[in-house]
Amino acid sequence: MDEIDDVPRRLWQLPSWLLNRAAREATAVVGDAFARAGVRRHHFTVLLTLAEYGPASQASLGRRLGIDRSDMAAVVGDLERDALIARARDANDRRRNVVTLTPAGETTLQTLDARVEAAQDELLAPLTTMERDELTRLLTRLVAGRDGQPPARV
Prior knowledge:
- The chain is mostly helical.
- It contains 6 helices and 3 strands; from the N terminus they run ααβααββαα.
């Protein structure tokens, strides 16, 4: 018997339980796609953020993405080692590192975007296009908060 068949029926009625199971599956599917590319989720989110917002301090990137300082230092170190970002001291504040996406980072991000898109398709395969759109709309509303308004940039 598959483990999902052995889950109590009452759990299937709990949105929190369903969201957790879906999140675990999403983490696994997307994590596998990143692992095949030799990166982790934090690498992708840093590259994506730099592409969308431009150069940023290492500390502000960590705060924006909810990445712990020590983890952020490791992620930036990995990306710098692979020449996907450039890190330099801020000319105005020598205590800060400013991180910039490199051309190699832009190319890698395009590759990762394609992998993430394929992972989304794998994850959401049971749903129609309309259902996928509705799920995204509802999750955006849930994550955005009680007023249901997503951030202006979404």
